[in-house]
């Protein structure tokens, strides 16, 4: 069954296989959202006289039944059925006859795909935000737990100044806030209603687009029907740009873990059950989890460019090229969620080594402390800098290990509570509770 097929027309099986591609597989991810969009659309059609109250009741009951199938994992797209939209309409028509055929009034498959993708992307971005919060909480907790455990700080990969595990964990925690801001920006782009734009040029039916916007708890609608279609691809690109940014943060963290776990640094300990061994070297404990985390997240950095290349020379309007966007977007959500989960698990089980800076090889880390000590005692900074340098050169330098860092965000004042409060503020901006209440009401 094809929503677009006319009588006495047949598409070559070879062409059909090529054009459908992986769409049926990808569309299973859209099933629950297609049902929600259908309920909202049918409700709207009833208010403008294109469905009777009996039609609406029958359609709504059957759509809720299909939704229950989806939730139980029992929904399938049958052989010969082109996509999720065709499957849902087929089920409605089988059960309700002509009433099932009425639901496509005032709608094109174009805006039906669009609303499904908007709803799907909105929900999945919130899933990513929730998983990011979990990783954030691990980092913030570790930051407080190890705020007094010092760590060498590096510039140019040379020892520079004293740092701490508290600073290190806390830095990645705060980095995730910036990633959440980008996720929220993508979420807001997904949170616009395209339903009613049809094939990109609207409808002669007096559609109530504000009603479907409210029923599906969108922040607002795409007002211009042409732009509603043009938002296809832009929404996906924004989502993948946000995922790419988050992946870059996790990748950098994974690289630090690989570095700090090596014997040359030896700052952290990964427990045996988080590592793998060598087939010939019995001493090896390899941080494969961090290495694969690094590789997977590095690969995700390229995803926005894949979208860019698909869209690179398209004029306005809908084009079948956009079907391929699902194959880029949907697996990316699964991948980043898996990476966030394993990163949190790795950090929860990772141990840090204490008293690292007691080793004399780190004496030079405290050279700035020596300069500041002289400045506090009245020596001008430039003179103090030269004096400390001379002490290092002639061997009279003694590392002052009594640190006095008190300003905001420093070793002695991590501001974990302030960072956590800011994260909660950014998460609250999603307002997903309102969305969930509205969607629950649709299928209740």
TrEMBL record:
It is an enzyme of class 4 (lyase). The keyword Transmembrane does not apply. It holds the Pfam family Lyase_1. Gene3D superfamilies: Fumarase/aspartase (C-terminal domain), Fumarase/aspartase (Central domain), Fumarase/aspartase (N-terminal domain). It comes from the Bacteria. Its main location: cytoplasm. Its EC number is 4.3.2.1. Residues 26-299 form the Fumarate lyase N-terminal domain. Coiled coil: none annotated. PROSITE patterns: FUMARATE_LYASES (PS00163). It catalyses: 2-(N(omega)-L-arginino)succinate = fumarate + L-arginine. Pathway: Amino-acid biosynthesis; L-arginine biosynthesis; L-arginine from L-ornithine and carbamoyl phosphate: step 3/3. Keywords: Amino-acid biosynthesis, Arginine biosynthesis, Cytoplasm, Lyase. Belongs to the lyase 1 family. Argininosuccinate lyase subfamily. This is Argininosuccinate lyase. It comes from Dyadobacter linearis. The gene is argH.
